[in-house]
Design brief:
Oligomer: single chain
CATH topology of the largest domain: Rossmann fold
Strand order of the largest sheet: 9-8-7-10-11-14-12-13
CATH class of the largest domain: Alpha Beta
Low-confidence stretches: none
Number of domains: 2
Radius of gyration: 19 Å
Order of helices and strands: EHHEEEEEHEHEHEHEEHEHHEHEH
CATH architecture of the largest domain: 3-Layer(aba) Sandwich
CATH superfamily of the largest domain: NAD(P)-binding Rossmann-like Domain
Helix content: 25-40%
Number of helices: 11
Length: 317
């Protein structure tokens, strides 16, 4: 079993390939040829939390395990196994893997749900996840204007400068969330907010919104009016959404979950989607173990094809 470090992941998993890999994994999930196990959490008295999520795709299965602590950050690892034998084949440093696959899922959803000519993007949040969110959207739409807003002026201005240079896009920091949202055909929220970060009335007609910041049942980024009005609300997994999608749990009663507006991303990839003219569309992202496994398998195969990772080997009898 080899150790695959963060630099290997970045080298071998460019965003355009990540979008393709995640799309194929979601298609397999929609067809019933892949499997996903929702996230589970173990809470410690110290404030630390252990999270685990698992999946199976193609010739592999695996589990991602990570810890979080409010004062000490997060630490991610992925264990990948060969399905035919059960043999462990790789241990990943998985912080960047999760960042890339989360962006890629948004790329898949945006390609399905956003208007084909959508070119103006709003990004609310300027942290770690926001970068790959924008990168993935840029893989599926030709962007003419990107506005970013976050609470801290220095953070949003640094994000705008850095992403404009890295992606070759017209990215600019703006002074308010409203200025970022108004007129945008695609809205991305990537924050730690507990309450909505924009108002429904600011949204352009037909806007597509990616809500990706929270997998906590008591936090939300989008207003209830958006959830009520959206023509389609896509989620990675309804089972997982019912456990941790605060944007839906805080807006809906139990009966609301039966709405045909709620669709799983894998089923939409499988069946296609005729957009029509909705007031808005939503992708509520939580992140799935099967996405980690698919992305990890892709990296593993490329690392081993090119002579191994930068880490060391473990020996098993």
């Amino acid at each position: 079993m080899i150790l695959i470090r963060e630099q290997d992941v970045v080298k071998h998993l460019p965003m355009d390939e990540a979008v393709r890999v995640v799309r194929e994994a979601m298609l397999a999930l929609g067809r019933g040829t892949a499997a996903n196990q929702p996230r589970r959490r173990l809470h410690m008295e110290t404030g630390a939390v252990l999270h685990s999520l698992a999946g199976a795709y193609g010739g592999y299965f695996g589990t991602k395990v990570y810890s979080t602590h409010p004062q000490h950050g997060a630490h991610f690892a992925l264990l990948l196994y060969e399905a035919a034998t059960g043999k462990p084949v790789a241990l990943f440093e998985a912080n960047r893997l999760g960042q890339i696959r989360t962006g890629a899922a948004t790329g898949v959803a945006t390609d399905l749900l956003a208007a084909r000519d959508a070119s103006i993007v709003c990004v609310i949040g300027s942290g770690f996840q926001a970068r790959t969110q924008l990168e993935a959207v840029a893989c599926v739409r030709k962007l003419s204007d990107v506005r970013v807003w976050s609470r801290h002026t220095d953070g949003r201005e640094a994000f705008a400068r850095g992403e404009a240079k890295r992606l070759g896009l017209p990215v600019r920091a703006v002074a308010s969330a409203r200025e970022a949202v108004e007129g945008a055909g695609i809205v991305i929220t990537a924050t730690y907010a507990k309450e909505p970060v924009f108002e429904f009335g600011w949204l352009a007609e037909g806007a597509h919104v990616n809500l990706i910041g929270s997998n906590n049942p008591m936090r939300r980024e989008g207003p209830k009016e958006l959830i009520d009005a959206a023509g389609v609300i896509a989620v990675d997994s309804i089972e997982q959404a019912r456990l941790e999608s605060g944007d839906l749990l805080l807006a809906w009663s139990d009966a609301d979950w039966a709405t045909p507006r709620l669709r799983e991303l894998g089923a939409m990839v499988r069946d296609g989607y005729e957009r029509g003219a909705p007031r808005a569309t939503v992708f509520k992202s939580n992140g799935l173990g099967v996405q980690d496994v698919a992305a990890g398998a892709y990296v593993y195969e490329r690392v081993t094809q090119r002579g191994g990772g930068t880490g060391f080997e473990f020996l098993y009898s």
